[in-house]
Amino acid sequence: MSFQINDRLYWPEGKRKAFTLSYDDGIEQDRRLVRMMNERKVRGTFNLNSGLFGRKGRVAAGKKEVDHIKIPAEEIIRLYENHEVAGHGVNHESMYGMDTARCAEEILTCRKELEQITGRPLTGFAYAFGAVDENILNAVRLSGIFYARTITSTYKFDIPLDFLQWNPTCHHDDERVMELADAFLSDDFYFSMYSPAKLFYVWGHSYEFDQNDNWDHMEKLLDKVAFKDDVWYATNGQIQSYVDAYRKLIFSVDSTKVFNPTCTSIWLGGIFSEKTVEVKPGEITELLPAIEM
């Protein structure tokens, strides 16, 4: 026998599902991707290199060679206005083997320069080439970054315990992505000791659609997940900020009350229950009664 305490995180409005995208490099193909996302009201985060705006190049990476032309700085605000801008390093360097000071220079300079362009504080980062080690992690922390994305697929919908090593669900070209989308959208019970709320996180580079001639693949994925009433479509930063607010909640010792010291409403429920309660900012709220299992 055990008791289910109804203190688990649910997404805003008590939703059980959240979907977010993350795309790297800030390249011209983003224009088409952003248009597709905007048409479906899907939100995401675009990770940019502050020292490479407007640079023209080509990329192959073992596949068909295609244009890799960086968006000019003057277009950033307009293009990504419905989404979030995050850092990807000044020059897209792999920071493996660098000392903490050099890593911090690459991360913090990128943050400062992107903030000057967007006019807002920047809290997110994506590791170039997925490179992350202890020195890089230390530099990310010292640079005031709240979350940083890797390229390691989890094939799960779990909320990360450490947002500075945020592993996505999968890449958009992963052979399992449509299967995962179906599982995400399913109302079947999703068991996680942390929260029954699901997070589907897809990442990639928009130039890859040109390489693989599969823009239709992304259209099918977006069409599948878009316009669902039970899904929260959010940027990476919105996800992290909401979870951070949840982690700041103060619970009574007997698990009957909770105080919300933040400015964000948080929804709570149980692992096996569909009922939720809103914990409003600055208020003490009664939790739903515990359930004997």
TrEMBL record:
This is NodB homology domain-containing protein. InterPro entries: Glyco_hydro/deAcase_b/a-brl, NODB_dom, Polysacch_Deacetylase. Keywords: Signal. The keyword Signal applies. The keyword Signal applies. Residues 14-145 form the NodB homology domain. It comes from Roseburia inulinivorans. Pfam families: Polysacc_deac_1 (PF01522). PANTHER family: CHITOOLIGOSACCHARIDE DEACETYLASE (PTHR34216:SF11), PTHR34216. GO terms for biological process: carbohydrate metabolic process. GO terms for molecular function: hydrolase activity, acting on carbon-nitrogen (but not peptide) bonds.
